[in-house]
Design brief:
By secondary structure, the protein is α+β, with helices and mostly antiparallel strands. Helices cover 48% and strands 14% of the residues. The protein is flat, with a radius of gyration of 34 Å.
């Protein structure tokens, strides 16, 4: 039985939002380094809690695998004479590779027979490799915002306080900046503050459990959720699934103990988002909702890191903190209601949208004009356009409220409440609420027409302004959330099947930035924004499982109409599995290869002298009438099926005529015919991009 390996990195509290990423990185890099070290193992598991990151490798081989390297040498005829004796070339090659001549082997290659030096490297003992390997593994972890502590140069997510490194029963002598690994970990800070001796790697989870630490994040997550649900149920309510909150709480506690707290019922008169935001985003509490869905109960579930001693004191402390936050929120809400939302719009002149792009009032005016433009293009009803235009005027006004200043995540939501309180229609309020949707890649889209229109123009206005100003995201940095906004544009257009010219919309938005000193001119800005949105659309397609080559084929035909490009990709992916796909691909490829020599696609029927070329022209005309109908209906699958019917005529054409005929006019006409066919198919997808498996 092969021993197990345990590495535990003991640290000060790791930021909860970064812990899952760190554990994933630890597992991935450990697998890479073990493979590079030629060390076989049965499995890798990672564990983690706020004060530790741990790696357990089961069944780790006690020796490296043997390695064999073959180095190509001179040709056989140069290495050995007619009598089979080695020449100076063979002797020199063997000497240079550090092997005996008898160890040279001959191999047959496409270019002839060659001599190879075969070198065998024996595996080393695993225990001799692990100290360096584990040290490098820790240093290789890519952490965001690393810290440096003491007089050391070492940087890590938080200061490292201890290391546990065991291979079977043996301590691995890992040293890191003067810190030596041992078999001693530390238990829960309160429940078991002293050292804990780990006797064997496979006993790590249980020995830490006895010391008050649940190190398995999956077990801990389930433990938290079971407690939260049970407590909510016992108090006549329910909690809504919230994976983000649950994951954050999971890495805030090594020994989670949930409890119920309460707040004054009078706070229930506030909008529910005003209650849940401080609970969830600020205090990491789980709000408890009524079982019938009719609002919140004056209760919450919080999770303590520790046992149940003095729980009443902990509960009172948490309630006190929440009470103060809710009292502030109530004050903000009442103060905000004193001034109608519309009265704040003029004050947006004092709110900077972005340096170089003016203020929020100017953006508000642009949104109103873009709403009118988009409403006309999409032929929206006058009622919906009027709602969207009014909502555009009010949408940014809640930035000036105290509530949004204190809780920025409530922008748009509070605008909805304040608009309704000021007498605006519910439709206007909903459009204000929806104009920031989607707030993430998985978030819901606007459900109403005015909300969708306003959301689109708000995002396009921002994308055009920032990108034309040269503020493109770089690498992982996207401080203005432009990628999210670009994805939102594509998602809305696709989900609502909105067909419009994106480049025209971008130009309209660019022109509305009158007087702004952009770095990009109008045409450059259109290209920049189109390219940016194309990347988002490609990501959406590949996220749906569409092969990259099919995505490339569709994008080569253009994506000015995003919804149409999406439909074309779906159709091509569907047709990829159809037996007729091969016929279409062959027909297109044969036509497109020679079409590159054509100077134009103007076909003169009187110059089609051979029956096969006449038949190809006639059949193309006939099929095209069907295909045109499919295009008008945006039935792209029907289009592909129709065009696949050209294969036989194209095959007969190539078998029956010499395209590059001596007669220049006939040659040009045949090339024009091929270019016409390839161009017609290529308006839907450039099939030359398709990779034939």
């Amino acid at each position: 039985m092969q021993p197990d390996l345990l590495l535990e990195i003991g640290v000060e509290e790791v930021p909860a939002r970064l812990a899952p990423q760190l554990l994933s990185e630890l597992k991935r890099r450990a697998a890479e380094q073990l493979d590079q070290a030629r060390l076989d193992y049965q499995g890798i598991q990672v564990y983690g809690a706020p004060r530790r990151l741990a790696l357990l490798v089961t069944g780790l081989a006690q020796e490296q695998r043997e390695a064999v390297e073959e180095v190509k040498g001179p040709p056989k005829k140069a290495a050995f004479g007619p009598d089979g004796e080695p020449t100076k070339a063979a002797l020199g090659f063997a000497r240079s590779q550090g092997v005996e001549v008898k160890d040279l082997v001959v191999k047959e290659l496409p270019g002839g027979s060659y001599v190879f030096a075969r070198k065998v490297f024996a595996g080393q003992r695993t225990m001799s490799i692990l100290p360096q390997l584990l040290g490098e593994l820790i240093l290789s972890l890519n952490v965001a915002h690393p810290m440096r502590w003491g007089d050391h140069d070492l940087k890590f997510i938080r200061p490292i306080r201890w290391l546990v490194a065991l291979y079977g029963e043996d301590v691995i002598p890992v040293t890191l900046n003067g810190l030596c690994a041992s078999n001693q970990s530390y238990g829960h800070r309160v429940l078991h503050p002293g050292p804990v001796t780990i006797t064997l790697p496979r006993l790590y989870v249980e020995e830490m459990r006895k010391a008050g630490v649940v190190v398995d994040p999956d077990e801990r997550r389930q433990l938290i959720w079971d407690q939260v649900e049970e407590l909510a149920r016992d108090h006549g309510g329910r909690v809504e699934p919230d994976q983000d909150l649950l994951e954050e709480v999971n890495f805030l506690a090594e020994h989670p103990s949930a409890f119920v707290g309460s707040f004054d019922e009078e706070f229930l008169s506030l909008p529910p988002e005003v209650l849940t935001t401080p609970m969830r985003d600020h205090q990491r509490y789980f709000p408890i909702w009524r079982q019938d869905g009719a609002g919140l109960l004056p209760l919450f579930v919080a999770v303590r890191d520790g046992g149940r001693d003095f729980m009443e004191v902990v509960r009172q402390g948490n309630e006190k903190v929440l009470r103060a936050r809710l009292a502030d929120a109530r004050f903000f809400y009442q103060e905000d209601l004193a001034s109608p939302l519309g009265s704040r719009v003029e004050d947006l002149k004092g709110v900077v949208f972005q340096e170089g792009l003016g203020n929020m009032y100017q953006k508000t005016l642009r949104l109103g004009q873009l709403v009118l433009y988009l409403g006309r293009i999409l032929e929206a009803s006058a009622k919906d356009v009027a709602v969207a235009e009014r909502a555009a005027y009010l949408a940014k006004a809640d930035l000036l409220t105290q509530m949004v200043y204190e809780f920025p995540e409530l922008q748009g939501i509070m605008g909805d409440y304040y608009a309704r309180a000021a007498g605006e229609s519910p439709a206007v309020g909903t459009a204000i609420r929806e104009h920031l949707l989607p707030r993430s890649a998985e978030d819901a889209l606007p459900a109403t027409w005015p909300g969708a229109i306003l959301s689109l123009v708000d995002k396009i206005d921002s994308l055009v302004g920032f990108l034309a100003l040269g503020l493109s995201p770089s690498g992982s940095q996207d401080p203005y959330a432009l990628r999210r906004q670009g994805l939102g544009v594509c998602r809305i257009l696709v989900a609502r099947d909105l067909h419009l010219s994106l480049s025209d919309l971008i130009q309209e938005a660019y022109d509305l930035y009158a007087g702004v000193a952009f770095k990009l001119d109008r045409q450059q800005a259109v290209g920049e924004v189109m390219g940016f949105l194309q990347q988002r659309l490609e990501g959406m397609m590949e996220g749906q499982g569409i092969r990259y080559d099919l995505v490339n084929a569709v994008m080569a035909a253009g994506c000015d109409d995003v919804a149409a490009a999406w439909d074309r990709a779906q159709a091509l992916a569907s047709f990829r599995g159809d037996p007729r796909f091969g016929a279409l691909l062959t027909a297109y490829t044969r036509a497109a290869n020679l079409a590159t020599h054509a100077r134009h696609d103007h076909v003169r029927p009187e110059l089609l002298v051979e029956p096969v070329e006449q038949r190809l022209w006639e059949q193309f005309q006939a099929i095209r009438s069907q295909a045109d109908s499919k295009l008008r209906q945006r039935d792209y699958l029907g289009f592909f099926i129709a065009m696949s019917g050209l294969k036989e005529a194209i095959d007969a054409f190539f078998d029956g005529v010499l395209v590059m005929a001596e007669d220049e006019s006939i040659r040009a006409n045949r090339l024009a015919l091929l270019r016409r066919i390839a161009g017609y198919i290529g308006q839907v997808a450039d099939l030359s991009q398709v990779v034939v498996a």
